Amino acid sequence: MNKPIKRAFLDTEDGQILYRIGGEGSPLLLLHQKPMSSNEYRELMPILAKNRCVIAMDFLGYGDSDKPPKMYSIEDYAKTVILLLDELGIKSTSILGHLTGAFVAGEVAVEYPERVEKLVLSDPIVLGEEGKAALLQQFSEGFQIKTDGSHLMERWAVRAKYVESDELNHMLVLDDLKGFGYPLYAVWAVANYCLKTQERFQKIKCPSLILWGTEGIKKLERLGLVNADNHHLILTAIPHGKVVDIEGGTTYMMLQRFEEISKIVIDFLEDKSF
């Protein structure tokens, strides 16, 4: 019988970080997108934990982690990754990061290369000046609580456009609601990191797998964040990266395409040729 995924907290000077952990063997850290939480990996974790020690954390400001007393940068989030690894006695690990998590995962690989064995970057979008401006315009005010409660239905309607399952939409909206009334910390972090992503990621030397959700990229293009035709620009920074397109994959593909993604990730991690 598989051991259950357990939850625990890490104390930091800026608050407690919730993390989930399960399985035994070589470690694999999972980093979520904004404004979600480690819930993003609730389907993937049990599969990956069959042969590995799998950890997923809630970034400060999201999920069940505390709201930090300051705005966080991608570099700050990378430091919290190292704090968690140190707490768990993990000297080096592979990392899977999706969207926001991909920025943080890449920064960890750059700044702490000795701590990263293999890297999986899912939808590591390259934002230019226009993408940065669009990101800040859409999310700079964060999620606002409205007296009449209309914000509840607004978030449901936004998610329902992209999620077929009511149960999944309910889970996503609950994660959203935990951030209402607070700034979207990771939006500020990504906006201040995005223009130097390619420069930073050129320093990534570890074996790297790049996953692209084809439908997710189209959604990000509709939001004015990226040009779908240029999504492989990340390879100018990581030319040694192996690319896999997830046909029909959305920004929620870690929950919707978990069986396909788990196989791709496991094959990559177990491939000794890298």
Walk me through what this model shows.
This protein has 274 residues and is an alpha/beta fold. The chain has a single domain (6-142, 182-270), classed as Rossmann fold (3-Layer(aba) Sandwich), CATH 3.40.50.1820. It contains eleven helices and eight strands. It has helices spanning 44-48, 74-88, 100-111, 129-139, 150-160, 166-177, 185-191, 197-201, 214-222, 253-256, 258-270, and strands spanning 6-12, 15-22, 27-31, 53-57, 93-98, 116-122, 208-213, 242-246. It has an eight-stranded mixed sheet with strand order 1-2-4-3-5-6-7-8, with helices on both faces. Strand 5 (93-98), helix 3 (100-111) and strand 6 (116-122) form a beta-alpha-beta unit. 45% of the residues are buried. The mean pLDDT is 91.
Comma- or semicolon-separated keywords:
11 helices; 274 residues; Rossmann fold; 8-stranded mixed sheet; alpha/beta
Number of structurally distinct domains: 1
- Main beta-sheet strand count, sense and barrel state: 8 strands, mixed
User: Which CATH architecture?
Assistant: 3-Layer(aba) Sandwich
Number of helices: 11
Low-pLDDT stretches are: none
Compute the average pLDDT: 91
Helicity level, as a percent range?
25-40%
Roughly how many Å apart are the termini?
Answer: 32 Å
Content of β-strand:
15-25%
Relevant CATH superfamily: Alpha/Beta hydrolase fold, catalytic domain
Shape: globular
The main sheet orders its strands as 1-2-4-3-5-6-7-8
Q: What's the alpha carbon Rg, rounded to whole Å?
A: 17 Å
